[in-house]
What does this fold into?
Amino acid sequence: MNEQKFVTLIDDLFDKTSSGKMSWETTLSKNVFQTNFPQYSIAVGQESHYSDEVGDYLVVFMEIRDSKGEVVDHVSDNVTDPIYRTLYKLYQEARRVAKGADQAIDYLLSELQRSA
It folds into this structure.
């Protein structure tokens, strides 16, 4: 795996997502969100793990899947790994888009202004 290519891909995905140029959707798996391209899709997610040495810890991952849904490549990091912050930012932004966070905030602000 070329880690620098993954970092570039994650950065580009984050930029497109945060600027509203990329959409994400929820999946059947809790805490996993997906965006689709003609030949591939990308899933980002967060999962809990446990080890005797560390206890509970979170891992953020990204998978590239082919048109059959099979994983072509995978990267994952926990909080001690160098690309964790970048991958976690992408996960958070994908989650916000997939869940409609901006629409919810806009609605609530509108309701608050209406009732003022």
